[in-house]
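User:
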Amino acid sequence: MAASFCGSRRYDVFPSFSKVDVRRSFLAHLLKELDRRLINTFTDHGMERNLPIDAELLSAIAESRISIVIFSKNYASSTWCLDELVEIHTCYKELAQIVVPVFFNVHPSQVKKQTGEFGKVFGKTCKGKPENRKLRWMQALAAVANIAGYDLQNWPDEAVMIEMVADDVSKKLFKSSNDFSDIVGIEAHLEAMSSILRLKSEKARMVGISGPSGIGKTTIAKALFSKLSPQFHLRAFVTYKRTNQDDYDMKLCWIEKFLSEILGQKDLKVLDLGAVEQSLMHKKVLIILDDVDDLELLKTLVGQTGWFGFGSRIVVITQDRQLLKAHDINLIYEVAFPSAHLALEIFCQSAFGKIYPPSDFRELSVEFAYLAGNLPLDLRVLGLAMKGKHREEWIEMLPRLRNDLDGKFKKTLRNYLPVIRKRVSNEEGGREKLKKGNKKLDLDEEFPGGEIYSDEIPSPTSNWKDTDDFDSGDIIPIIADKSTTIIPNRRHSNDDWCSFCEFLRNRIPPLNPFKCSANDVIDFLRTRQVLGSTEALVDRLIFSSEAFGIKPEENPFRSQAVTSYLKAARDMTREKECILVFSCHDNLDVDETSFIEAISKELHKQGFIPLTYNLLGRENLDEEMLYGSRVGIMILSSSYVSSRQSLDHLVAVMEHWKTTDLVIIPIYFKVRLSDICGLKGRFEAAFLQLHMSLQEDRVQKWKAAMSEIVSIGGHEWTKGSQFILAEEVVRNASLRLYLKSSKNLLGILALLNHSQSTDVEIMGIWGIAGIGKTSIAREIFELHAPHYDFCYFLQDFHLMCQMKRPRQLREDFISKLFGEEKGLGASDVKPSFMRDWFHKKTILLVLDDVSNARDAEAVIGGFGWFSHGHRIILTSRSKQVLVQCKVKKPYEIQKLSDFESFRLCKQYLDGENPVISELISCSSGIPLALKLLVSSVSKQYITNMKDHLQSLRKDPPTQIQEAFRRSFDGLDENEKNIFLDLACFFRGQSKDYAVLLLDACGFFTYMGICELIDESLISLVDNKIEMPIPFQDMGRIIVHEEDEDPCERSRLWDSKDIVDVLTNNSGTEAIEGIFLDASDLTCELSPTVFGKMYNLRLLKFYCSTSGNQCKLTLPHGLDTLPDELSLLHWENYPLVYLPQKFNPVNLVELNMPYSNMEKLWEGKKNLEKLKNIKLSHSRELTDILMLSEALNLEHIDLEGCTSLIDVSMSIPCCGKLVSLNMKDCSRLRSLPSMVDLTTLKLLNLSGCSEFEDIQDFAPNLEEIYLAGTSIRELPLSIRNLTELVTLDLENCERLQEMPSLPVEIIRRT
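Assistant: Predicted structure:
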């Protein structure tokens, strides 16, 4: 077996057997099955086995990945076999070799215990043998027989078992590697490489991977090698460098090493330079040459594809693209720099082990990724350098990165890779590098082998003395690449976000996206304004900037100034979209002239401006026209080759196509694709003539331009089809324009176009009701339908199943498939018949709005009969339905951005309508909702649009109601209740907070939220509940429909309704939740106001505007509160106690800031469920003794409770408290011992001016705030706080001495 990057073994399998029993029967069939699976098996070629085992055989065992031991009756009669077994057992223990025992007509227990017939034979063999040798045999027999294997007695026949053994071995050898699965973006690279390699082709193929150092070429190649190895009998992943100046000797040395590795033959000698071709010309090989910088190496090892057998693939990796060209490698994968969003994921994967940062590191991570640049190596290095560091250390590092304009700091980081790789390994406590959650990062690209590095980081003063980037005492543990090449920050030339970042860096002073203003954005837009495309540019940059981590409310692209600038730009330009129509004709061909006119008319009809551009007879190409268009329709005819000037223009157009986002749509007019591709017919004659009269390089550019056009595909003109073709071409152009601004359609088409499936392709599209799933599916269907033999689009599948039932729909489907004339019914057609009938036909099937997987299977007869060449697209509101329909990765349709919503509004509303921003907000990016709302407010008779919009929210258009109702009605009672609580009370709240409270109400909240997400009714954004406003409105409408009288509804949120219920004392047991915004409200409540609300679970009286107070008074006191309450949130509670009758047995959160309470209540209460208590700024509070009963408390907030003096008996002595905030408790003097509070992370005593004594610290504290206290000394236990990151001692004027702290704690704090 060839050597690879993951360790070299000469053989895949070593078989150990007794030739007396199995060589001609069982073994022969097994070897045949292994060979059929391309498994490299050692064969002894008739080696005599009655001699002592020789060194060659021992070497073969040690250099095999798997040993198959075939125990048979006479296996133990051979000392050779037994000695083999001892060696195999040794390799099993010491080299982790895989051993597969096979029991051929012998029972495993006989082998293990050496009994029965097997034991008799073994006993004879042992006679006269040394005891130590017999002992080794017995130990090996017992150990190997104890390994799970295959017993022929348990199988119906040999053939079945042999096939299973071969399959098992194949899986063990070629199991999919996890080394690369966690590398961000690797799948996209592998898909791109697969399309270049064309693995289905039997023709040998040589391709290149090019890109700068650190871009990830080697990592991509290693992942590719891991993925493709099972398909090749011989494979090798090698890196060679010149070590000898003598060309001939160096080449022989290269060949010897190369053939030794790929053929698995040690010390192989070659005599001439033709050995590679002679040895491999009939072999199917996979060869990857890494880090190539010598053209002679390529000529020597992979001179031509003809040197290798059919199906071979050779991949050459280099930084030098010209080296590939010089070796005639034209299929080159140029590794692109990652987008800003992908760069952030790469950085986070290294820093946090996941592709997104923790919430408190989000902004820091975004800026670090931005400052690291776009080179994957630098992103990984910096991420690993920051791995495990505390937030304060990140903040300290920022100035160095911001000032690192020349890359000196990053270069320093990259110079210590081996040192820090070992540090990280040690920090992970010896865990396996590939263990789940600890991604193995491959940063070895272009890393020279053989160097030896110290395990200690050199002194900063000695190694960084030439830079002022470090203080003398800094020790920076980092992982980096030893490469000394630093590539400047570059991205694709057509990457708008990169261009914007570059623009900011060139400002004076330099800026970054977090520090720029709206004026900076406008200045950038002025540099990029071309023919009205500025709006689309802003739309893309809004998406990129927010993917980069900028909050929408802080995004300068969304500012009023930028919006005003866009309006002014629209008023100045007012151009429609221009589409270029290229041709090369002399007006003598009537058909071509007529066709161009048909295209122009169709473009006008669709609202575009056609710019017809004849390349014939033009001296110069109009570059301004090129840059003013996003789509070019190119009519290719034989006239092109009659004009050298036209061909030069064609080259220029294709160069422009490669460097911009221009879309080219070729139309082959009276020429065939094969003529241009193979330069046949008139093209062949013309180019032969041009070859004779012109420079070769000019002709080669023309050929390259022709090849590039052919690679795009396009449409072929046929006589009589010009009008149909014109419509199809313009529809394609329109769709391509839409693609450039529609991330949804673009994403789906990218998935379809890169699909390499050898089986049926089943794609799923899911999203909320009204998001546009049907429209997108229809566009895809119309775009792809011409390429299929049979196409079927079944719209409104859910509705059709209700109207016709699945059986009738199946009859319709069968009749469409086979045609009415065949007279076949559903009962006549079995899946096997369907499979055979359509095996060689292509099928495109779209099922729109599927709500039940069983119905879908019933209509189409299951998914099993579909095969390669068949594509099924399903849309659904439910992700789980798509998964049940065998969709592997459902594509979620994203909501419209604000800019897309704005453009849609402008199609209906003229001028600056005052309600546009409210329309955009109320629609939540749902196209259906936005269209219906905009259409409604655009009617002329409406005088007050804002009032009309509010009425629409209370009574939405029928289509919105129907779309929502169907999703809601399909939920179970648990999910319905959770949804209504979220809609009425928890939209925008933390998911964990909602789960905490609603679980206490008896709901299965986490499961319910997951189901609501799958049903597209809610989503999570930064772990917060996100719900489209139309859905929230509908949820509240459902509650409103429970009863006309608010007192009989389950949930109340409207202040008017709530005040009516409370002041009239009309509450009933129907009410389960009340959330009242009491800003600017003043009212008196009765003592029995909650007397009949037995089922009230959630109660919240609050003020949403700062400066206001909740003025709900209880002049006659309060008799009771409902015992079902899990949330009691009452700001400015007016009484000194809670009702004595109140039993808080279900209470989870007590939130009563700014209350008048002196104590909660008299006596003890059951506080088992209480998790959070907030009594902040309750200035009269003196007694919290009852909290000692709350053993599950996690958060206590008593900030500003200025009357609290002694809490020594009040803090619960349990290990569940996480935070204790007693800031500004100015009379507090001491705290109890905290040694048992093992989960306490935060202690805040700042502003406790009389606080003097602290006995000890909780052992796992991370944050301690003691600013402004009167403490005189700190307890010695502070030295043991290994998790401490913040220690605030500001203005501790009485502090006399402080224990000496470990260096680690000082550095963290």
